[in-house]
Amino acid sequence: MLKEKLIQIFGRDYVLDDPEICLSYASDQSFSTKMTPWFVVKPQNVIQIHELVNYANKTKTPLIPISSGAPHYKGDTVPSVPRSIIVDLSHMKKIININRQQRIAIVEPGVTYGELLKALQKEGLTISTPFAPKAEKSVLASVLDMEPRLNSLHQWNFIDPLRCAEVIWGDGNRMFTGEAGGSSMDLKKQWNEQKWQVSGTGPMMLDFYRLLTGSQGSIGIVTWISLKCEVNTKIHKFYIVPAKKVKYLHDFVHKVLKSRFSNELMIVNAAYLASLLGDSYDQVKNLMSKLPQWMALVGIAGRELLPEEKVNAQEQDISDIARQYDLSLLPDIAGINGMQILEKVTNPSDEKYWKETYKGSFQDVFFTTTLENTSQFIENIYSLAEENKYPTQDIGVYLQPQNMGTCYHCEFSLPYNEKDKYEVEKVKKLFIKSSEHFSKLGAYYLRPHGIWSKLQLQKDAQSTIYLRNIKNIFDPNNIMNPGKLCI
């Protein structure tokens, strides 16, 4: 009965129940519990999704939305309950509109960073990406998950560059949010009325798009989003500021941000950058030994207005700031040119994700904190690694300013060999222990995947109650990715 209804909605070719295919969605590269879905469906348009959600409400069938292509790493796409349907949105790949004048792009869930960047380039635009995203990473999924951007000075809040969205809420209601809401649910008609889906606030007094971010598909299915883009760069330079200890970079980074300089700005250690630049285990290992232990990576960009003057002025000013703290702004390091790093950092990874190059698999621990607290967390991850006999030199560290530098994304990457059961168990234990320990030290799990959901929400019972109330309003039958976010 269910299969026949799904075929009626999507067509026979887009309803899959082959055991091997379903098994491929039953787990990911995280340590989440394995659960095989009942069916996999691949929608082609919003009408099909709307019909599916309405039917799922009648039959109380759980739906798990997925936008990015495999592999997955955070457990949010793995079913938490049996007899679930995977809603694979990766076939919805339309770039609906790019408006050069308004600097707005509207994309469907299956559009990847590589596809969007290529289309934007033709219009003289670009968009800030996360740190070298995987090749099949959905732009929509990335933005809704609030992945940290490289250009924190242009990030007015954690939700940037998200503006408007179309969502099918868990109760079956279809809605346009932000400026797109409150009028005709027809984008072409809105464009004729000079409405360009630029403002994310509304409709009315509530910013509905805030309910969607970080929700892990547990409240509705988003079928398009509008994104604020940037004018493409005319000149783009990239520099390295090496240091023996991470704390030596703190004042430098803070002063650069306070002065409103730089385009990209981040701190990485040798293991993290080596994993990005190396093409094999041996290359990564070799780079680890050559690169400085800690580095601030600084990008300077000039766009349409006086690009050369801007880049030259910032280059001199940032160099002066570096000298104030006995540091040096270098165009290359250990035989690697800064522009090579820029190319890697700002573009999607090759088909094989760069974090898998070193040992084949990895597990990330990430959270939000302040710059002055990052040294404490780094010391603790090294201490915990030693206790669990994990090699500290393999731990990749990435510190990314967010929201104009008001806070920092702190990420520890733990590479391991998935074929070595002892090593897998060791990393799993380290992941759990460090996550719990960091929570006690004040880490804020802004993106609470897996066990982080419980660790974060148990600190604030009132917020958990509010989340449950919101879930009950927009998804009263609990069909949307049930079991996530501890609600």
Report on this model:
The protein is of the alpha+beta class and 487 residues long. It folds into 3 domains: 2-90, Uridine Diphospho-n-acetylenolpyruvylglucosamine Reductase, domain 2 (2-Layer Sandwich); 95-231, Uridine Diphospho-n-acetylenolpyruvylglucosamine Reductase, domain 3 (2-Layer Sandwich); 235-440, FAD-linked oxidases, C-terminal domain (Vanillyl-alcohol Oxidase, Chain A, domain 3, 3-Layer(aba) Sandwich). The protein contains 16 helices and 19 strands. The protein has helices at residues 2-10, 19-24, 46-59, 113-122, 139-144, 187-192, 209-212, 247-258, 270-277, 281-290, 307-324, 338-345, 371-387, 421-440, 451-457, 461-474, and strands spanning 15-16, 39-41, 63-66, 85-88, 95-99, 104-107, 125-126, 162-169, 174-176, 220-228, 230-231, 235-243, 265-269, 294-302, 332-333, 336-337, 361-369, 396-402, 407-416. Strands 12-14-13-18-19-17 form a 6-stranded antiparallel sheet, with helices on both faces. The model has no long low-confidence stretch (mean pLDDT 96).
Task: Write out key terms for the chains shown.
single chain, 487 residues, alpha+beta, Uridine Diphospho-n-acetylenolpyruvylglucosamine Reductase, domain 2, Uridine Diphospho-n-acetylenolpyruvylglucosamine Reductase, domain 3, Vanillyl-alcohol Oxidase, Chain A, domain 3, 3 domains, 6-stranded antiparallel sheet, 5-stranded antiparallel sheet, 16 helices, 19 strands, 35% helix, 20% strand
